[in-house]
Amino acid sequence: MRLLLDTNIILDIALKRDTFYKDSADVFKKIDNKTVFGFVTATTITDIYYIAKKDKGHSLAIEFISNLI
Fold this sequence. Notes:
This protein is mainly alpha-helical and 69 residues long. It has one domain (2-68). Helix content is 67%, strand content 9%. It has a two-stranded parallel ribbon with strand order 1-2. 12% of the residues are buried.
């Protein structure tokens, strides 16, 4: 199965948003276990950087994105 991940699912993980963190983490566990394949659009990466940088700073935003891709 292939999943196109919405920006908010990734931000739930990056920003550790309590409300949806567990559900989003479950999706990423399936990707890590290769049960499903996760994809993002190019603009999702820039959106994640912009939002995560505001909350966590440049270095952590870049580190998260590097680990993501």
